[in-house]
Amino acid sequence: MEPNEVNTDIKSAGNYNPLTAEEAWVIEKKGTERPFTGALLDNKAKGVYLCKKCNLPLYRSEDKFESHCGWPSFDNEIEGAVKRIPDPDGRRTEIVCAHCGAHLGHVFLGEGFTSKNTRHCVNSISMKFIPLER
After folding, report:
1. Taking the CA of residue 32 as centre, how many other CA atoms within 13 Å lie in the half-sphere pointing to its CB?
2. Among this protein's residues, is 121 annotated catalytic?
């Protein structure tokens, strides 16, 4: 599935989706939702995960896998959708939406969960899911 197959309305600065206080804390203040509480953790449906703030397609369902870490995990992003930046803690790499800068979570390499050896550990609250229409 390609990002252009999903009907999205990508928002621009000043026109972003409204966020709840909890969403804003994670997405704008770089917080983290409690593990094993996110609405998208156990989602197995086919579709696309979008940025909650701007609607940019971020991940495809076929790249989601079970890592048992407490947050949705993906081993690949949609090309150009996710930006990696050094985390202030000096140990991790933060991932943000390449369009609006929304905090998504962190990326980890070399853990061996999949053949791609990459785990995007993403807060459910940072995304919304659009099911693949049949």
Report:
1. 12
2. yes
Kindly report which listed range (2-11, 20-29, 99-108, 113-122) carries the lowest average pLDDT score. Answer: 2-11
Domain coordinates in residue numbering, the chain: 9-131
Residue recorded with tokens 């206080």: 21
Characterize 113-127 residue by residue with b for buried, 16 or more Cβ atoms within 10 angstroms of its Cβ, and e for exposed.
Answer: beeeebbbbbbbbbb
* 34 vs 9: which has the higher pLDDT: 34
Q: Where are the beta strands (DSSP E) in the chain?
A: 47-51, 57-60, 64-65, 73-74, 82-86, 93-97, 103-109, 118-122, 127-131
Say if domain 9-131 classifies as CATH 2.30.30.30. Answer: no
Tell me how far apart the alpha carbons of residues 134 and 121 are, in angstroms, rounded to a whole number.
28
Q: Contact, 83 vs 95, CB < 8 A?
A: yes
* Total Cβ atoms within 10 A of residue 31: 15
Annotated catalytic residue, options 51, 97, 100, 121: 121
